[in-house]
């Protein structure tokens, strides 16, 4: 904190426990004193090293893992952004100026999403003149891979670590994450088995850093999994895709109290809503009505409609979509409280 008061941009360095090749490193420079030792200037930031360089970093005693945890005065950071990352600074200031708050939700403009996607290290910390590093007085893991996540879990006598229900027979050193259904693992060693509602990952444990390559391939193919989870968050609540086929989709929709979906229309699909809990206010064309638990309503394709929750508890409905096309982009919004087009 004292270094931050002295207008330093401070980063916390983690004393390395091993020559990890999945982290960036920080090399400390000369000591900073103000009557008492406060920390060290940063000599340089280094990207993820190979094994040989990582071992040299650990042996030197001058290098820390880069945790990406900072302490600085707001005015000092903004000044550094304006000097070293002017495009980002201007974009942030424009994005945050005059943003309306609607129903407790702040929706950033699309311009914010067009700003360069760079780390604070690259944009500012590696360029600024007054950057300091202090050893972190706490344990840390970035939980940036399934192996690092697994290291936080208890293991059995064979070194297996399980979240959820796992049946393991003659398996050693495996990591199993299957919270929603039984996973049976037979006669294998050092495997990752990660079962989520979105996708199943099976990989060699020592290759977990390569998952980003899988994501890149999904992106190249235009697969929706790299963009949307099975449960999607919106300003008004969430929806979860329960089942989907070529001409249908079944969703569980939760609308928070006082929130509303946009006034909208779909060209290619109809929708059937069944209220599970709460009370729905349904606008359909020129009419409005309340729909209560166990009641339902039908919205034909091409009809303007809106779903609202006028109550004090969550509105939960099951939606069945049918039509030639049930993609999320089949939507025309006429009015939206959250400024979405």
From TrEMBL:
One biological process term in Gene Ontology: GDP-mannose biosynthetic process
UniProt entry keywords in alphabetical sequence: GTP-binding, Isomerase, Nucleotide-binding, Nucleotidyltransferase, Transferase
Major enzyme class: transferase
Domain MannoseP isomerase/GMP-like beta-helix: 170-218
CDD domains membership: cupin_PMI_typeII_C
Catalytic activity: alpha-D-mannose 1-phosphate + GTP + H(+) = GDP-alpha-D-mannose + diphosphate
UniProt-recorded Gene Ontology molecular function terms: GTP binding; isomerase activity; mannose-1-phosphate guanylyltransferase (GTP) activity
Database matches in Gene3D superfamilies: Jelly Rolls (2.60.120.10), Spore Coat Polysaccharide Biosynthesis Protein SpsA, Chain A (3.90.550.10)
Residue ranges of domain Nucleotidyl transferase in the record: 8-153
UniProt xrefs under InterPro entries: Man1P_GuaTrfase/Man6P_Isoase, Man6P_isomerase-2_C, ManC/GMP-like_b-helix, Mannose-6P_isomerase_type2, NTP_transferase_dom, Nucleotide-diphossugar_trans, RmlC-like_jellyroll, RmlC_Cupin_sf
EC number, as in UniProt: 2.7.7.13
The organism's place on the tree of life at top rank: Bacteria
Mannose-6-phosphate isomerase type II C-terminal domain location: 226-336
Pfam families attached to this UniProt entry: ManC_GMP_beta-helix, MannoseP_isomer, NTP_transferase
Keyword Repressor in annotation: no
NCBIfam families membership: GMP_PMI (TIGR01479)
Family designation: Belongs to the mannose-6-phosphate isomerase type 2 family.
Protein name per UniProt: mannose-1-phosphate guanylyltransferase
Species whose genome carries this gene: Methylacidimicrobium cyclopophantes
């Amino acid at each position: 904190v004292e270094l931050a008061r002295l207008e330093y941009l401070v980063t916390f360095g983690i004393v390395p426990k091993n020559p990890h090749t999945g982290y960036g490193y920080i090399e400390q420079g000369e000591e900073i004193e103000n009557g008492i030792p406060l920390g060290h200037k940063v000599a340089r930031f280094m990207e993820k090293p190979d094994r040989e360089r990582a071992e040299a970093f650990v042996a030197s005693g001058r290098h820390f893992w880069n945790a990406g945890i900072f302490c600085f005065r707001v005015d000092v950071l903004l000044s550094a952004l304006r000097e070293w990352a002017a495009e980002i600074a201007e974009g942030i200031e424009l994005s945050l100026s005059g943003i309306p708050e609607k129903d407790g939700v702040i929706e950033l403009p699309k311009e914010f999403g067009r700003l360069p996607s760079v780390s604070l290290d690259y944009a500012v910390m590696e360029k600024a003149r007054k950057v300091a590093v202090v050893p972190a007085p706490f344990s840390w893991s970035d939980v940036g891979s399934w192996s690092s996540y697994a290291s936080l879990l208890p293991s059995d006598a064979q070194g297996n670590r399980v979240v959820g229900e796992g049946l393991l027979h003659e398996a050693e050193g495996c990591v199993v994450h299957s919270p929603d259904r039984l996973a049976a693992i037979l006669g294998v060693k050092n495997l990752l088995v990660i079962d989520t509602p979105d996708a199943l990952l099976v990989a060699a444990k020592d290759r977990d850093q390569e998952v980003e390559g899988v994501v890149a391939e999904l992106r190249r193919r235009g697969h929706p999994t790299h963009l949307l989870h099975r449960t999607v968050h919106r300003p008004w609540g969430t929806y979860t895709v329960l089942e989907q086929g070529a001409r249908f989709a079944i969703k569980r929709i939760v609308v928070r109290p006082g929130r509303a979906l946009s006034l909208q229309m779909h060209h290619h699909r109809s929708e059937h809503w069944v209220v599970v809990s709460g009370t729905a206010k349904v606008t359909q064309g020129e009419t409005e009505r309340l729909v209560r638990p166990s009641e339902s309503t039908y919205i034909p394709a091409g009809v303007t409609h809106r779903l609202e929750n006028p109550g004090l508890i969550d509105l939960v409905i099951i939606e069945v979509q049918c039509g030639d096309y049930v993609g999320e982009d089949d939507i025309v919004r006429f009015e939206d409280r959250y400024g979405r087009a």
